[in-house]
Every structure is written in C-alpha cells, then in structure tokens.
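Input (structure):
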C-alpha cells in the first residue's frame, strides 16, 4: 500500500476549479487509487480504464487519512 501527500485535482464539473486532496492510497491490485480531501468525500479512481472517479464515502469534515483494511 502506498500513500501520497496533498495535491490539487481539477474537478470534472468545473475544470477551472480544483479541490485539495489531503490523502490517497493505492489498492493492492495496483490499478485503483482511493483519495480523500477538502471536499469531504472518499473517491475511487480506476487507473487503467480512465473512467471517472466514483464517490464511495462522505464525511462531515475534510478527510485527512485513508486506510484500506
């Protein structure tokens, strides 16, 4: 499992607006990334398919840490 630092990601709804990503982790399959950030959402990003991110969880505060079990 790899964890990366903060980054800004452009949103699909508005490419001129970005959301700060506070944490991310790579799933053991090596092709799926989970991210969390200031938008209070956990998203999964399918790397190989190039598909759109999918919201898999929401919180009432920015998400600073992700841990896959």
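Output (sequence):
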């Amino acid at each position: 499992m790899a964890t990366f630092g903060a980054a800004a990601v452009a949103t699909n709804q508005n490419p001129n607006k970005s959301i700060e990503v506070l944490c991310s982790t790579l799933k053991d399959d090596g092709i799926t990334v989970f991210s969390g950030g200031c938008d209070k959402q956990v998203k999964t990003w399918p790397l190989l398919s190039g598909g759109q991110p999918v919201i898999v969880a929401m919180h009432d505060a920015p998400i600073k840490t992700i841990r896959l079990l």
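Notes: The chain has one domain: 3-58. The chain has a mean pLDDT of 81.
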